[in-house]
Amino acid sequence: GMGNAFLANIREADAICQVVRAFSDDNVIHVDGRVDPANDISVINTELILADLQTIEKALPRLEKEGRKDKDIAASAAEVKKAQSVLEDDRTLFAAAKSGEIDLALVRDLHLMTAKPFLYVFNSDEAVLTDEARQAELRELVAPAEAVFLDAQTETELLELDDADAAELLAAVGQDEPGLATLAKAGFDTLGLQTYLTAGPKESRAWTIRKGDTAPKAAGVIHTDFEKGFIKAEVVAFDDLDQLGSMAEARAAGKVRQEGKDYVMA
């Protein structure tokens, strides 16, 4: 098993990223003696499911008792029972929530591990990276979670190459960008995060915000005073700014608009 300490660490995480072996190499022996991504994923998920079932078994009697006097707790208890059924069917709560079977907000207080967002990274070789059918099979295996395919050995080599040689190596294995870049984007998406840019004479910088944050909330990431004193934002599409070359030119072309406190960052 994973061990209580390891499971405790996972419980504190915001998402679960599983790195799964999908490459073949006789010099790298698999613990089970064979490369079987489906089995590897099942082993980990079963451990997480069993841990969640144990948590529910301890909490449910209390919730049902308290729910007799509190409608909100009663609603949570009913949803926890649904969660129990999902887990007993050997499915993650993350997948069940994606299909609308369960409301994770009602079971959030239990900090169930399979309710967290999942992301799968398939450590692959060239045979997998250039085989769209095989990738489709593996994506289907982990759906609705997102899947990323990369070759850890290739990623190491890319760090030592200049841009031209790196592009040539990526083309050879059928990739448009380094796997680590793809993973970073997928990680942000899984966590519900995004970035926005600020640029000035001295520096350009990316700031991390949650998807759905309003402009004042985004400004507050830079400094809380910016959020408190927010009045309006001047907004221009990046493509327009890139084409016109400056905010002044964008204003002259009528490409700049003003947005208020309810503006959601794109």
From TrEMBL:
Residues 1-170 form the OBG-type G domain. One of its GO terms (cellular component) is cytoplasm. InterPro entries: Beta-grasp_dom_sf, G_OBG, P-loop_NTPase, TGS-like, TGS-like_dom_sf, YchF_C. GO terms for molecular function: ATP binding; ATP hydrolysis activity; GTP binding. PROSITE patterns: G_OBG. Transmembrane segments: none annotated. This is Redox-regulated ATPase YchF. It comes from Corynebacterium sanguinis.
